[in-house]
Amino acid sequence: SLYKRKKEWQTSDFDVGKHLGQGKFGNVYLAREKHARQPVALKILIKKELLDAKVAKFLKREVEIHAHLRHPSILRMYGYFQDDQHVYLVLECASQGSLYGKLEKRGRFDEMTTRQCIYQMANALSYLHTHGIIHRDIKPENILVDGKGKLKLADFGWAVHDRRPRRTTFCGTLDYLPPEMIENKTHNAKVDVWALGVLAYELLVGKPPFEHSEYGDTYHHIVKVKFTFPDHVSSLARDFISLALQYDIRKRSHLSDLVRHPWLQNTFKSVS
Ligand SMILES: Nc1ncnc(NCCc2cnc(NC(=O)Nc3cccc(C(F)(F)F)c3)s2)c1Br
Prior knowledge:
Shape: globular
Order of helices and strands: EEEHHEEHHEEEEHHHHH
Radius of gyration: 19 Å
Distance between the termini: 29 Å
Structural class: alpha+beta
Strand order of the largest sheet: 1-2-3-5-4
Bound molecules: ligand AK7
Helix content: 25-40%
Number of helices: 9
């Protein structure tokens, strides 16, 4: 099987099939590894683009982190290989695509579906934090759905082994960033707790809590933690989300407390 392979993979070990998705630095294809006859997702990255964008070291760190992770709610990275133009990531295939795609189609999820999603992601994050890893990029685009409707956290492009607070700069959407990151203060694993609160809100409501057309307005609403719930959101869901969206990281719940929150109790773990 994929686990017991001896030598390095090469492209001839795979039959490449349909295009699954377009990522920031390359495309993802459905592929079959010829010997194990197992479907995988093959992410093909263009070396020149990685070098031009100066992200090669991030990718190296991601592979080192991701390849060693084993958890039912984390997308497996079986390995990687390269040739002169490309880097290939050999990934578990999530046949139902991304949670982003499902959310876009449905508009928003009901509470039961949302609770199942958040329960699985809270456990995946708890596993990461126990291993000293912060994901730092939790959002529906980075959460995939397998054939049985189980969620798989993916894309550890921004993940870090972080045992000490560090400074970093971000580009891209602010929606999921906590105050301490956009105010460029030190940050820690609690950034993922904040993002889990944003995720729970977005799945229930259909858009993230601080979304505004102007960057400046989003910034202002995040640092003031200014958001409102539509009437249909239950009081238990509001309580859960409010515990995660705390400005002060000392007041922001630990994941270990959130996984025990009444809102997440006895969820039956799959997304229809
Ligand atoms: N149906 C599907 N089933 C399985 N997978 C699918 N898509 C791939 C999901 C990913 C998992 N892991 C990833 N990792 C990276 O992309 N890493 C990456 C890439 C470039 C630069 C960098 C960095 F250098 F910036 F960090 C880091 S993409 C799909 Br659609």
